[in-house]
Amino acid sequence: MGKNRKSKRQLVRDEKRAKKRDREIEHEEERDIKKQRREEAQKEALAPAAAEYVPPPLDGTYDENAFPGAPEGRRGPNTNFEREFFGMLEEQEQEYFRHADELLELNDFPSTEERDIFLQNVYKEMRGKELKLASSQSCSRLMERLILLSNTRQKKSLFDAFGGHFISLVTHRFASHCCEKLFLQSAPVVTQELSGEYEQEPLPEGEEETEAMKSSMEDLFLLTLDELEEHLGFLLSDRFGSHAMRALLVILSGRSLDQAGTKSLLQSRKKEYITVEGAAANASELSSQIRAVPSSFTMAIKKIIDDSTATMDATALRVLAKHPTGNPALQLLLELELTMFVKGKEKGDKKQKKKDDEAEEKKEETQSEVTLLGMLVPDAPAAFADNTTQAAEFVNSMIYDPIGSRLLETLITHCPGKIFKGLQQHIFGPRIQSLLRNDIACYPAIRVLNRLSREDLADAVEKSLPEMASFVDKGRFNVIKTLFERCNVRNGTDEINSLLKALTSAYGNDWKNLVPKLCMLDEEVSEEEQKPESTEEVGEEGAEGKKEEKKEKTQPKFQTQEAKNKAFMLNHGSQLVAALLAIPGQPSKAIQSSLAALKPAQVMKMATTSHNTSSILVKALQTPATTPTFHKVLVSSLLPHVYELATSQRGSAVLNEIITLPSKPAEPNAPAVPFHMKENIISQLAQYERDLRETWLGRNVWRTWKGDMWSHRRHDWVRWAKETDPETARVAAAPKKREEKEKEEAEKKPKGYLGKNFDPKKAKGFAGKKFEKKEVAA
């Protein structure tokens, strides 16, 4: 047998890894020495200050000036803890764990059983070194990959190892990511144990069952919260602890973990995405849906909200609202309070409400309940009428703040109806047009538009019509889009026509100018924007080649502010075009007229330059036509560039959409593409068949258009392409084999039927002999 030879790609990959490993080994000792010197210098500098430090009083009241000896970042209540140092791994241990990390990253095991055995061996080697591993810069990624592949017993063992050290871990630069991953991956286990669907994994041989393994995941989460309880106020604004705190709040609330809004709330854009090949298939379905949580979790959220805000006054909350790290945590706390506790009280029968109101009135006489909403906007909604009150000052100060306005968006979206009416009547309603014009205040104002009634919305549209030219000049396309969409939801046809007239007047009173201006088709495309369209990224290496490139590009590309603004304008302008196209009547007719008037080069630019613009063409092909020739004109502009579309990442989606449309419309003005155009496209694709098969996108287009059927069974392809049924029915209507047709015809005939022209004398076989016997007997 010949020797197993590695491919060229594997050799290059191994060479890169060897160089990377050598560089890390060379610099590891230097980093350790520098780190040790830095820590010693820091201890020497903080030694006299720590000796003079006086702990804060137990009642939570404090004065920053009263403790001048407190270290920087440690002032205030419940932050007088010492961050632990867990030591460092030895050189042999680092080499072992680094090699294990590479194997887990590839996940190229022959079977899941062998991978489980490998994980057990890694856990045995890691026993007693979990804290060192989690806080290591080079090996903390291994801990995250282990958590992704671990079973419930192994996750509980990590809870046991981290127990008693969580406050130091969640505030550590590298260990905080491990804690966050452990929390998120363990959340579905709580729901499984609550519903009784959880099955205990068998204990491996030679391993003893600890108390943490016997405990439920609910108890382990509650023990973790007990450990962090004393430092909640500090964790809200800590650079690393805030993310772990938000993850715990999301888990306790039962929200979906895979939702886009949840992911943006938990992690920053710069966060490194640690994953394992094929681990996504093992992800629980409970992560993508709302989870059932025990009642103790709801009580824990209430206690966290109370404890976090117990030592804060109005000034501290206002500072936290404008803090870049504390603001997202405060958003989540406010949203959970409004959705779980405030709105829950509003639901119920009228009789029950009266009883609750009477009981609340009696309670208010003796004691008043302090809530986060009440601390942010006290005495609301009556306080909004006076601009000198604390509630009105808070809202006015947050409207134009780039960070604080996000908290105001959460308040507007989830606050009770009474408070929203007060906000609309006294603060947002009188100056809605000026707020929509501002680049920061427009976002809270858009949240207000989403909750307005039809009458208030009509009033807001009337005030905004004179400002339409200003909206267009400043690029407030998201404001215009929201106005159109909300008027469509509220059935405001007159308002929609008024908005369209004002928008058209801003672009020269001609519908043909809408799409070229909003999608920036008249401007030249830079080389950086055309790079993603190169066919190199879909070569034979496929996804593996992309991953090697991503590993090398650790730093994001530098982008000028002008390029960012252009991308921002293009994104919002394309969204406005798509929103107008989806509104039946005059808006859809205006966009279709503008698309039909485009030059072929402009249509090709829309199809290949940006995902936002190409999605407009896809939606236009799916939208019923206001004129009978709209789809025909749009497709004819793409015919000269079929090969470019097929090899383009964004243009291939437009090309694949064309074949899904019927050749003849089932109803008047229904989407349809004539058959001769489809035949023209497939004939051009057949000329570049060899080139198309060399790229993944080309193969996808060739398969979608059934190019093999065109090459070998053209008659069958013609029947398939002319079929007017949707794509799901085309498979059923495909040409059947001759034997299947004969079987179906035989099943339809009644039993004993021998045909109209049956002649017994000419017949052969059993039937002919039977008739001959009857004649002889006669």
On the 0 to 100 scale, the average pLDDT is 78
Helical content class: 55-70%
Radius of gyration: 34 Å
Beginning-to-end CA distance, first to last residue: 81 Å
Largest β-sheet summary: none
Proportion of beta-strand residues:
under 5%
Q: Label the structural class.
A: mainly alpha
DSSP, total strands: 0
Q: What overall geometry do the principal axes of the alpha carbons give?
A: globular
Give the low-confidence spans.
Answer: 45-78, 347-351, 362-368, 525-556, 724-738, 761-778
Please work out how many helical segments DSSP would assign. Answer: 45
Biased composition (Basic residues): 1-10
Keywords: Repeat
Region (Disordered): 1-78, 347-367, 525-560, 724-778
GO cellular component, one term: preribosome, small subunit precursor
